[in-house]
């Protein structure tokens, strides 16, 4: 008893193995999009996927990241922001960016009911959730030529792409995740081991291709909702308030605050997703048709400025291992305010684009 789907689509290393990553690869397979190629930018340097379709050397990683950028942005995940204390915002809960044992783990899940339904509806596929008799469901779907997304009960990652089965259980594709390791740069992780049936909480079974239930305007409204949520919850204001109290913090508290400030970089780097999704498209694909309409060219060009300011590199110098005795708090606060103003400007551009569509 064994069957496996020929699957050659890689993951990018710009985010963890979230539901959005899994869905991207699933979508590419369903649409017959070629994901083949090597994983190198040039020479022996492994590609992270940051340039998407604009990369000078098309490879397996940046082919995938082009579609990932779109899905990551249309859900609103690319404008998600982190509180300085790491506690979940309402927008994190909406998208499914969850904590593990009380500790924030960036990109751990992103598989909330909202995210799942939006992505399938936006891509134009029906689906159903299976919560029992997992072996039968996996076998039937794989035999029908359709991969399955499995959500496990606990651990990181929470979602797996299942592309086969044998007498021992489900099988994951043999493609290897490109990840980043301090001191080593981008490296390829070992192939994944699929979860057992007993570890699975639910399965997402792909149905028929349908008319999309969501379009560009719905995606832009998701972006608007998340930015407004970040601002209304005072995410950036919380940074300023905490930083202004640094003079009263102990050395240990200063380290923790510094670490937390540095941890927000990952969320800021998601501006890459937003900028590429709205500007760098594969125009021959139906999914990019609305975005590619010339009427939006001026709107998407305006995105450059706020996305350029939402640059986590500005915080790189504030390494969390320091005690911050030599750090200019006013300088950090000024940087945080720049991020807030960039979000506000981005919100204005998105509102204009929504107005044009409506």
In short:
The chain has 13 helices and 13 strands. With 358 residues, the protein is α+β, with helices and mostly antiparallel strands.
Taking the alpha carbons of the first and last residues, their distance comes to 53 Å
What's the helix-strand series? EHEEHHEEHEHEEEEEEEHHHHHHHH
Which consecutive residue ranges, at least 5 long each, have pLDDT under 50?
Answer: none
What composes the largest sheet? 4 strands, antiparallel
Strand content: 5-15%
* Mass-distribution shape: globular
The strand line-up of the biggest sheet is 6-13-7-8
Number of domains: 2
Given helix and strand content, the structural type is alpha+beta
Query: What is the radius of gyration?
Result: 21 Å
Number of strands: 13
* Overall average pLDDT: 85
Q: Helix content range of the residues, please?
A: 40-55%
Q: Please count the helical segments.
A: 13
